[in-house]
Prior knowledge:
Number of helices: 6
Radius of gyration: 24 Å
Function: Forms part of the ribosomal stalk, playing a central role in the interaction of the ribosome with GTP-bound translation factors.
Strand content: 15-25%
CATH topology of the largest domain: Alpha-Beta Plaits
Protein name: Large ribosomal subunit protein uL10
Strand order of the largest sheet: 2-3-1-4-5
InterPro entries: Ribosomal_uL10, Ribosomal_uL10-like_sf, Ribosomal_uL10_bac, Ribosomal_uL10_bac_type, Ribosomal_uL10_CS_bac
Number of domains: 2
Family: Belongs to the universal ribosomal protein uL10 family.
Keywords: Ribonucleoprotein, Ribosomal protein, RNA-binding, rRNA-binding
Amino acid sequence: MSLNRSQKEAVVAQVADLAAKSQTLVMAEYRGITVADLTQLRIKAREQNVTLSVLKNTLARRAVAGSAFEVVSDQLTGPLIYGFSEDAVAAAKVVADFAKTNDKLVIRGGAYEGKPLDADAVKQLASIPTKEVLLSQLLGLMQSPVSRTARVLAALAEKKGEEAAA
């Protein structure tokens, strides 16, 4: 079923708005993937606040025109699924994790901060820990000296208490 002109304009506007809010775009070829597998991918994407869209490439080109993702408009060929995310690594992580378990999903590339990414760069971006993990690691590093100092002081106090008792 094809869309009429007003429906196409609505789709382009919706995707353009999504592209304006997003930091990352990941494109993957989904040829041969079953509907059930694609549904699982969409569920995982929703959990990570990633928007997946299957669009006609001409509509996708119009939607990303003038945005930071325009750098990949020449790569928009074939049956592609587009993943947009406001988090820098979420879209790459969702698509790359799914591609590990399903060899029919082939990462074609993407864009981040106005720079085009090839498939390897998308996989590298996906290997970066999430913002929450990085913040917890930073907090652990910041707490480490304080907790060490507290343990040393407690050991000194315990030792002084033993000396006073003797």
